[in-house]
């Protein structure tokens, strides 16, 4: 078992049952370090979890200029031997050399570190040393220049956990959107509109909401075509693939409906008619979510054996290092990871 | 020239230059009649235009229960001979028998009337008897049962005006979205992502905004694939088709940019970074618009030789006849038609 000392600044509030979360810094030259210190400075976040950061201790210290209330970093190489000073945040740097900190600079070495930190964090979660993983943004160009071929965190985490059936799910307030496909061309996304695959998407979304405490979540399946195909006039995927998937899942006892016209289903979910929507392609789900919750969306991977949540924004090189980036999305990601972790424990 | 007497209830405010608009009632069994009387009861709408309704005088009178301030209807068969009582609204019923008024009932004859009223209204606009056409919702199932094969108003108006290059454009506050395609399957919409067609879409959107008074509208072209294709990793349409179209239009002096990631471009437009977005398919534009402005969106057809605007919602049979439907979208459609008409006159 993972046994690093609990060291929050406010020991009387310390809850030994607080879940431990591995939080990756992401690309050091993006906004990851500053949103990380801002989030860890917040009492509500400190109450929720015990973090261990996978990232650069030095960069974290530099970023603390933007959030002096963030506890200081303590570099940990060996938990058994390291005595963490009271009120410090353990930071694991890992074996890959960390480059100079240059906010806004695209650096393949920063991409390499970001990927390695995710690998370490996932390893810790698989070994049950942490309850879950929360990730700060990586830069895809950076990780590609570093020689990795991942489309993003989702695919990386799936590979590391040897997961075949996984789905990206976005959360923001009333919006909960699980995607039948994500990082592929739109034409490929249409090819993935198959009854078997859609049924898996529905089941994964349903299971996640049940874990989060919904007794009988109402799941709306969006069509792929305009007006959900208008009875076949604008495409047959709704008739040939979506309806069979919905019927199959309904027969399994899942409360799912549709296919619904895509242009109103998200508004209806905002109005609490549904608890979750199943989106047929990346932008069908991402357009409404970004519009409603640009700063507070959370991205999570369903179907993996570990809990993994993430901010729902990029590295934002253009504002990195300026201290203006908002930590809301990261805080929401931490909260969701804690919710999943507590559900797992109970 | 069209010379029916101007007869608004408030003669001292009467502006002889107010544009005349043909307003179609749409499907009588939908919410068309009630939103029509609610809109025509509003002083701001009365100030803006002189309406002539294509619809049922009797249904209009019945609907006035929901908006007693709406001027009464006067059935007109021959404008040269009809003396309109002061403060009444001219109504043309046309040659097709009007069925019984049954709010919420799907009736092919109501569909037939709705189509014929649009045909008459477009004929009046082509003959310059009215400055433009504003349409209330039709029910697609109804018009199909009546034997017509139109996907919607847009296609009907395009056919009636013999227009080949036309585009659906949605307006709502800060959002102005012109669509490269609309009523077809998503896979067909991807096939229509071709440089020539996109250039036409950009030019039509640009021309519309220039007419509305934008000196140099900033037009954002959305990608078709996630992240606008991520440099070809998720599809090549952005590289092969969108970029050439954007370059061509830029060379013509149009301020256009992109292809932009579809999931943030609409938020950026809301934040006034762009004046218009070009959407690559129906739902890419309709999802954000419905989310931001469910009740106040306006739908217009660009490229036709006549001005045509429409409500951006359906017949809503479920609430028809109850007087609860909101007239905002119709009022916005009237305002936009007047804006276009005044631009044409100046």
Q: What features would you highlight for this structure?
A:
homodimer; 346 residues; alpha/beta; Isopropylmalate Dehydrogenase; 2 domains; twelve-stranded mixed beta sheet; 12 helices; 12 strands; 38% helix; globular; disordered N terminus
Which helices and strands occur, and which strands form pairs?
Two copies of one chain form a homodimer.
Chain A: E1 20-24, H1 32-40, H2 43-48, E2 50-54, H3 57-63, E3 73-75, E4 89-92, H4 108-126, E5 132-135, H5 140-145, H6 153-160, E6 167-172, E7 175-179, H7 186-191, H8 195-211, E8 219-222, H9 237-251, E9 256-260, H10 262-270, E10 276-279, H11 282-292, E11 298-302, E12 308-311, H12 328-345
Parallel strand pairs in A: 1-2, 1-5, 2-4, 3-4, 5-12, 7-10, 8-9, 8-10
Antiparallel strand pairs in A: 6-7, 6-11, 11-12
Helix pairs in contact in A: 4-6, 8-9
Question: What features would you describe in this structure?
Answer:
2 copies of one chain form a homodimer. With about 350 residues, chain A is of the alpha/beta class. Chain A folds into 2 domains: about 1-165 and about 305-345, Isopropylmalate Dehydrogenase, CATH 3.40.718; about 165-305, Isopropylmalate Dehydrogenase (3-Layer(aba) Sandwich), CATH 3.40.718.10. Helices cover about 40% and strands about 15% of the residues of chain A. The first copy, chain A, is built from 12 helices and 12 strands. The first copy, chain A, has helices at about 30-40, 45-50, 55-65, 110-125, 140-145, 155-160, 185-190, 195-210, 235-250, 260-270, 280-290, 330-345; strands at about 20-25, 50-55, 75, 90, 130-135, 165-170, 175-180, 220, 255-260, 275-280, 300, 310. In chain A, strands 3-4-2-1-5-12-11-6-7-10-8-9 form a 12-stranded mixed β-sheet, sandwiched between helices. In chain A, strand 6 (about 165-170) and strand 7 form a beta hairpin. The longest helix of chain A is centred in the middle third of the chain and has 19 residues, at about 110-125. Chain A is globular, with a radius of gyration of 20 Å. Chain A starts with 19 loop residues before the first strand and ends with a helix. Residues about 1-15 of chain A have low confidence and may be disordered. The interface between A and B is large, with 39 and 39 residues.
